[in-house]
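$ run holo --ligand "flavin-adenine dinucleotide" --emit tokens
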Amino acid sequence: MTTKVWAIRAAEVDRGGSAVSSQELSKYLNREYVEMREAILEYLKHDLFKPKYDLSFYEFRDLTQERLKHLAKGNFISCFDHINNPGRFFAGMEALTYVDYSITIKCGVHYTLAGGAIALLGTRKHHNKYLPLLDSGKLPGCFAMTELGHGSNVMGIETTAVYDHARKSFVLNTGSDLASKVWIGGASQYGRLCTVFAQLTVGGDYKGVHVFVMRIRDDEGKLCKGVRIEEMGHKMGMNGVDNGRIWFNNVVLDRDSLLDRYASIDEQGIYHSPIKSIPARFGAMVGALSTGRVCIAQSAVDACKLGLTIACRYSSDRPQFGKRKIGSYLTHKRRLAPGVAQTYALHLIMIQLKGLVNDRHDPKKIHNLSSGLKAAATWTRVDVLQKCRECCGGMGLLSENQIGGMIVDMNVDVTFEGDNTVLMQQVVKGILTKGITKPEPIQVRNYSTEELLQALKYREDVLKYRLLQLGDLDANQDTCVDLGWAYADYLTAENFFKEVQRAPPALRDTLEELAVLFALEKMERNAVFYVCDGVIDADGLEKLRQRVNDQCNVVSGADGEHLNILCEGFGIPEHLITAPIAKGWRDFHTSPEIGAKM
Ligand SMILES: Cc1cc2nc3c(=O)[nH]c(=O)nc-3n(C[C@H](O)[C@H](O)[C@H](O)COP(=O)(O)OP(=O)(O)OC[C@H]3O[C@@H](n4cnc5c(N)ncnc54)[C@H](O)[C@@H]3O)c2cc1C
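-- output --
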């Protein structure tokens, strides 16, 4: 296949007097850990990371395991960064989504979940013993929280850990099948170390959920005494990760197996914790693990970047019905331009969220924001990638064109690291404070920046007030999810408009066009609310439709060519954009590796 170097790379286009450079956009978006990011992207040029579409179930798992080992050799990702430099940890993980979601999650389970639990819930003895082995990839790690009977309700898990002071050990038991650990990434084949969530009892007193670190396989890969593991099964996607199911039968763990940052047992067998209440202690432990949620949200944003880059290139280059490019159709602009705006908006607010985690900001604020943004980013990804796929017509179906693979592989991101619907309810519990007064009615007339922000904030405030009046959150879960969205939308839009002011002058017009489109589209999505609450009337609704159309035209350019510049701004290197339709679809041929077998 001849590969056409994308003509528009680093181009400058005239946008009504102001030129915008994709390089400048990229510099602005990718302003953190620049050298490290470039080094990882370069490292991913290795043959091992080239896409493979004809592998069997087990071959794909082996490849994913080899990829993890090779990444470990590069020394980019370190579990110590959870403690010393979370920002660097995020940067290390970020580029992986462009390769494939299995390696992203394989690393997520190993470095983020297993490594993160040991780093953030354990103490120095755990760090010294395990983190170097995790960093080097020599001790593959798992994270066993979910049980067959208890998914979203982690506090309800049934695995038990009973402290036996005579042996200075814990005895771990699964009990019933409902307490078996399910979906555990890495457990089925390669995992050797596991962080396990269990209900702790000390001296007959129930102490709530605690986390333990243990070997599930020895150095030869043989299962440890009392551990039973079964294969989870073939999944709709992400089959490079070997998910498994685990049972524990009287597994004996020494006293140091308890990750004891929040609770410990002393030489005399006495339990100590600075946090007295069981729910508060549980909250502190899971709150410390928000890194995983942040990584999942960032991956969703990165998948949007790749999907949009491919779909926008193809759309601005493919004619249909004569010479007219499909990217020139309004319906194409309507499907792609808002996705680009959402991706910019989410990328920029993710920088803020990662900054809060890095600066060890208030854990409650981090929990609310990471939960709301994880749900918003992954649900946005579902929507954006589906639109990208449809905009590419039949070509969107080919695995080589990357979008379809991401759709199936990443479908799980709305479920793991907190099911989105459940997360949005947690957000609401976190942000509803007593004493919220009824918001003063507002009206939107011109859809100015000020009015748009006011409208998004108004929706959040009205929904908060409404829920407080209703009182019963359980009977009004639908409104809770709406409020979770309203909270995430307003914060994202507010931050985007602030970024417009912070950005170099040459980028401001372009970023403002995107920020306006982001806010307009959010209003349009929630038009029923705005009409029913009297913020706009029927004429205002029609005006809104026109404004969204106009803004999509402005942001896209005649054939959608402006969208290419904006996608170039995401800064994905050519070697990771492997989709043939992104390089010159006229030269399309079946991939040699698959074609040769026919
Ligand atoms: C591919 C994959 C990999 C995974 N990897 C791991 C891993 O490595 N380690 C690990 O510990 N876990 C892992 N998980 C488990 C994952 O975290 C759980 O699937 C997730 O927490 C949801 O739990 P569940 O599947 O039991 O769904 P449930 O909690 O049963 O939810 C099912 C549905 O019910 C709804 N629901 C549940 N409760 C409520 C409520 N209160 N209000 C309204 N609606 C509700 C949810 O919105 C959802 O739609 C993985 C899962 C998958 C699919």
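-- notes --
The two ends are 18 Å apart (CA to CA).
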